[in-house]
Amino acid sequence: MPREDNYILDMQDITKIFPGVKANDNVNLSIKGGEIHALVGENGAGKTTLMNVLYGLYEPDGGQIFYEGNEVDLDGPEDAIKLGIGMVHQHFMLVEPLTVTENIVLGSEPRSGLMLDQKTAQKDVKEISEKYGLFVDPEAKIQDISVGMQQRVEIIKTLYRGAELLIFDEPTAVLTPQEIDELFDIFKSLKEQGKTIIFITHKLKEVKTISDRITVLRSGKSIDTVNTEDVTKEDVAELMVGRQVLLEVEKTEANPGEEIFKIENLNVNDNRELPAVKDISLSVKKGEILGIAGVEGNGQSELIEAITGLRKIKSGKFELRGKDITNFNAREIKREKVAHIPEDRQKRGLIMDFDLKENIILGYHDLEPFSRNGIMQYDNIAQYTEDLIEKYDVRGGGMESQAKNLSGGNQQKLIVAREFSHDPEFLIASQPTRGVDVGSIEFIHNQIIDRRDDGAGVLLVSAELSEVLSLSDRIAVIFEGEIVDVLKASETDERELGKLMTGSQAEAGGESNE
Amino acid sequence: METLTKIFSLSLILASFRFATPLILAALGGIFSERSGVVNIALEGMMLFGAFAAVYGSASTGNPWIGVLYSMIAGLSFAAILALVCVTFKANQIVVATGINIFASGITIFLLQVLFGVKGTSPMVNRLPAFRIFDVRFNPITYIALILVPVAWFILFKTHWGLRIRSVGEHPAAADTLGINVNKLRFISVLISGVLAGLAGAHLSIGDGSAFVREMSAGRGFIALAAMIFGKWHPFGAFGAAMLFGFAEAVAVRVDFAFIPSELISAIPYVLTLVVLAGFFGKSTPPAASGEPYYKGEK
Amino acid sequence: MNKYSDKIKSVLTDLGLSLLSIIVALIVGTLFIYLTDKSPLDAYSALYIGAFGSFRAIVNTLWRSTPLILTGLAVALPFRAGLFNIGAEGQLLMGGFTAGIVGFYFTSLPTIIHLPFAIIAGMFVAGLWGGLPGVLKAKLDVHEVIATIMLNYIAMALTINYGINLFKETGRPATPRIMKSAAMFNFNNMNKYPFLKDLPLSDLFSQPAIRLHLNFFLAVIAAVILWYLLFKTTLGYELRAVGFNPDGAEYGGIKASKSIITVMFISGAVAGLAGVGEVLGTHFSFMQGMDAGYGFTGIAVALIGQTHPIGVILGGLLFGALAQGGLEMQFSGIPSEIVMLIQALVIFFVAALQVFKVYLAKRKAKGGVE
């Protein structure tokens, strides 16, 4: 039974397990009819998984779902659609070469005889579009319209199928500020018409602006559900990040030397060719750790890819030891004694089907003593691998095991072993401990500090605020592709950073630390 | 001058239609399959097996129309293998299709021996009667092919079936989220392609001829694939390309050019297709999800 | 745990899957044999005797497997780099044709120059023919499957239709016979050479209808070289990385486009060697029908060999044995096309079982964590 009568939806103890992760662990979510409910949490907290369960895309491994008072069993999206649940996915589910109308009616097309009834379809689309103030061009092809309009098409798609409960997965991630305002107007208009909205986000400003209630997920668990008016942004931020046990990082005062790396006026676009990094200038000194704090998706990934030669830049300049390395490719940058722990170890950092000894030389594989005259020196490599496996405590398989057989922590240690073993003078670490066990986290942190103490400059990017705080000597806060402030780590705290990260710079200056 | 008159003589144009018929049919088949997201390089084998089955049907019943029916069943059965292994079990589409092509070569020659006791050419069988419309005499399959072009266009672009087929070939996950059964639609589309390729085979063996000759498809399945690409996965485009290629074949057979050896004319479809794919005539892009198996509900 | 045990396990799984596919294909093949009113047991024993029943049978099995090993390698190598070369057929034709022309055109070269020249010329032209789709893929993003299909038929038109007509001197659809100086050494002639005739097996080799020639050894050497290239050289390391994970390779500073073009050139050259051998060792002229679908059978060979060069040798031997044994079957009244059917069935089952293997791996991954 739903726990309260006015719940249109009550998800109880939902559990969903993927190979290697418990994405949802006894999650509870209850939604009142006619409310705008924000579902917040860091990346990987399990929000999208939970919504995919609700939409029938994933079958839960445990738990019950009540909709309008009845327990329901969702075998596929068609079941969810029938109940009146609609979903606007983060990556739009639109068929690019088809028209707006075709995308909307797909799967429940009006027909006249054998033909698809384009006229009725367009009329229906127009009606919905006018009723909810969702302006679209019914005859345009998806590939020719703006992202904002594509999103409206997605919304009409759900309404066309009679959705009463609409799920939005990070709807603002791809929108411009004006488009976000328009979206929120749409939310209000939907609410006025009696629709219920679940809205996934990690942008707290938006949560405060638009939602009625908030449910916070963290590491696959539901932490709390609160009324929006009863809490501040900072309260929600704390629930999201959690009062994590601060791992004691033993580190001495930094002893920064001369500047090793400098970024000047960097601009980089994302995959959609929209600006992701806006006019960033930064510098890193020898013997210091510069942390970049920010909510994910604010340009960090693009920034790091640009620095490491994996993404083209629009404009700007990089200097390493005073040498211009702006247009160096990935290989040339590595040769400049730059080490890089990439944010996605499965996509970038490792060749999962390669064994340990092949992975531990990736990027250095054509150098002596691993390669001589184009011939791999596997004896040398084996010796080298054996040493590093021991030194970096990589467990779970010998040098002949494939990387994919290692746990996340050991995979990460393997990357650290590789990248730290070529006397790096400049070190880029992106999400170095994501999905890594506690023991490995401590190990990796100590390794990073050791490099710093050896005189390397370190650029650290992490979504874990506590990690940035405890490791960094200086912290640059990134928000919407811009560096909003650079602070000394010893003179700031999570609260201040949290405010800067969520774009409430002015307030941060005005309030004193309590 | 004399060459020019020869090129544009009526008989040459009629011959172009005849040569184009199997290309049109198989290309339409290819369009259905690829529009739904399954690359079908087994058109060649389906056509060959269809050609054999048509002869067998005609020989065993004396009725060439039964042959036509058999040819479609033959194409369908190969298509069912492709669909089962690649759509249902998600094996590599290119690998399995190559297997089907080899299988088709083997099984037709094998059955020639088992059923007819010969190795190269089957006995003569009753062929389809030609129909005369004004001055034009074609076998029925040519007319069928010409009718199927607008029909295929109608199905793909004017009905809800077509909309769904195109959507699963472009963005299967989007279709899935709307409750469309991606793999079922793909399965059916592959079956349609098999029927059409089989029919193309019947044209070769009992439409245009009256016997089966080993390897008689002779690469036409691949030319049809080329016509499909050249026609940008559109029925009318593929029809135009097939006509062009059919015309080239007719010309190669009948006209001697001083400047290009007739043996090389047969390569024109392939060269043109490469040129098109390389983007020299505007980019020709296949359906986005073509060749990718669809796994439901996976991360 | 032994540090090599994972590797051994995976080799054994691959071997098991290949064997299983062959066995299932042979079993399904019996259905077709029943259609001929013959007993499958008789058919398969004829197959066995034809392939392995005598010294001559065994040697000729090696001969038959030669082009298959080479085309198998030409498919397997790009497969490791994430590419599907179904153009081995066309590459074989270009190589064979070039070798045929060089073989008859130069009339007064000594063997020591003429033969290597013909081999290298054939491999080089075939390499270019294979490299072209590589360039198209790397630079213009043209899918290599479609490009190689088209190039197969262009090669047929160029060589079989046009090329032969350009050079043929008799009614036979073939280029003129090559000079003796360009012919590959045939084991049948062993006892005509001073030292070789004293070797232990020379009498056996000089019995009639022994067809084995030099190219078999070149094929085995090619397999060993490719194995070395793939697993021991830096280039091999890079192209395997690209094949497994292009993003990871890019991170490691590896240029995918260079790997793609290189691997397709090499693969074309190896397929070309198959054609070269058929012309210089088997037929002594480039003739219509000499390709015999080897390019496509090569796909089956590569798959059954799990795209490992040494596995490809085994796969080539298996399919060579089927081809050689098929003749014996033919003599006992069973169509040798059974062999093609079995080849096709092997492809289906290997492809389907590959999926099964992936499924097993996934299940293992799921069971492995809590």
Structural features:
heterotrimer; B: 299 residues; mainly alpha; ABC transporter involved in vitamin B12 uptake, BtuC; two-stranded antiparallel sheet; 2% strand; globular; C: 370 residues; disordered C terminus
Secondary-structure-derived class of chain C: mainly alpha
Q: What's the CATH topology name of chain B?
A: ABC transporter involved in vitamin B12 uptake, BtuC
* Helix share bin of chain B: 55-70%
Mean pLDDT of chain B: 89
CATH architecture of chain B: Orthogonal Bundle
How much helix, percentage-wise, in residues of chain C? over 70%
Determine and state the CATH class of chain B.
Mainly Alpha
Question: What is the number of E strands of chain C?
Answer: 0
Order of SSEs of chain C, N→C?
Answer: HHHHHHHHHHHHHH
Q: Most extensive interface, residues per chain?
A: B-C, 43 and 46 residues
Task: Give a count of the beta strands of chain B, DSSP E runs of length 2 or more.
Answer: 2
Strand arrangement in the largest pleated sheet of chain B: 1-2
Give the name of the CATH architecture of chain C. Orthogonal Bundle
Taking the alpha carbons of the first and last residues of chain B, their distance comes to 65 Å
Please, how many domains of chain B?
Answer: 1
Strand content of chain B: under 5%
> H/E element string of chain B?
HHHHHEEHHHHHHHH
Family (chain A): Belongs to the ABC transporter superfamily.
GO molecular function (chain A): ATP binding; ATP hydrolysis activity
InterPro entries (chain A): AAA+_ATPase, ABC_carbohydrate_import_ATPase, ABC_transporter-like_ATP-bd, ABC_transporter-like_CS, P-loop_NTPase
Subcellular location (chain A): Cell membrane
